[in-house]
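Look over this entry.
=====
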Amino acid sequence: MVEVEGQLKKWGNSFAIRISKNKVRENKMKVNEKFKLILIPEKNVLKETFGTGKFRGSTEKLLKQVDKELYND
């Protein structure tokens, strides 16, 4: 099994997956040759894990709050 990155493109009313010529040659693939494809969409793991931060107020206000919590003022 070989892992290869490709790119999904629109092709008329259908879609096609493009694979670089070098990868096709390296794996000795031929036109119309059948192969299995496992789709794993790329995701932003950090965004999924932690979400997106929404801060209210200015940066200065946020830093003052952090200082207050750190130094117990």
User: Anything to note?
Assistant: The chain has a mean pLDDT of 83.
